[in-house]
């Protein structure tokens, strides 16, 4: 899917995904994931210049494992995560600048 994990892997139950190579920020992706009931948090990644526009998304695995998710289920979550990121990128590209007409 082409995502970079900030640590290069996982040393604990948290996964921090760098979204910079996707051309989107964590704040926007967080909102789309929230709309489809996937819990995630925007998070800064190395190289970010502002905490207001973080370049990453953090997800935890305990909520999934406590519900009995197995490896195949995690693959489905990754698929839905990827679909949400792609949708966010698409919406951003289609609406860039077009909202200006709504400003006074």
From TrEMBL:
Pfam families reported in the protein's UniProt record: SHMT
Record-level Gene Ontology MF annotations: glycine hydroxymethyltransferase activity
All residue ranges annotated as the Serine hydroxymethyltransferase-like domain in the record: 1-80
InterPro entries on file: PyrdxlP-dep_Trfase, PyrdxlP-dep_Trfase_small, Ser_HO-MeTrfase-like, SHMT-like_dom
Reaction equations catalysed: (6R)-5,10-methylene-5,6,7,8-tetrahydrofolate + glycine + H2O = (6S)-5,6,7,8-tetrahydrofolate + L-serine
Keywords on record: Pyridoxal phosphate
Cofactor(s), by name: pyridoxal 5'-phosphate
Entry keyword Flavoprotein: no
PANTHER family, per the entry: SERINE HYDROXYMETHYLTRANSFERASE, SERINE HYDROXYMETHYLTRANSFERASE, MITOCHONDRIAL
Protein name, as recorded: Serine hydroxymethyltransferase-like domain-containing protein
């Amino acid at each position: 899917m082409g995502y970079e994990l900030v640590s290069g892997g996982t040393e604990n139950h948290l996964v921090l995904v760098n979204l910079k190579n996707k051309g989107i920020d964590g704040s926007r992706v967080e909102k789309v994931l929230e709309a489809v009931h996937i819990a995630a948090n925007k998070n800064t990644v190395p190289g970010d210049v502002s905490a207001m526009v973080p370049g990453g998304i953090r997800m935890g695995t305990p909520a999934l494992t406590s519900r009995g998710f197995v490896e195949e289920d995690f693959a489905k979550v990754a698929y839905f995560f990827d679909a949400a990121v792609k949708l966010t990128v698409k919406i951003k590209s289609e609406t860039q600048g077009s909202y200006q007409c709504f400003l006074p």
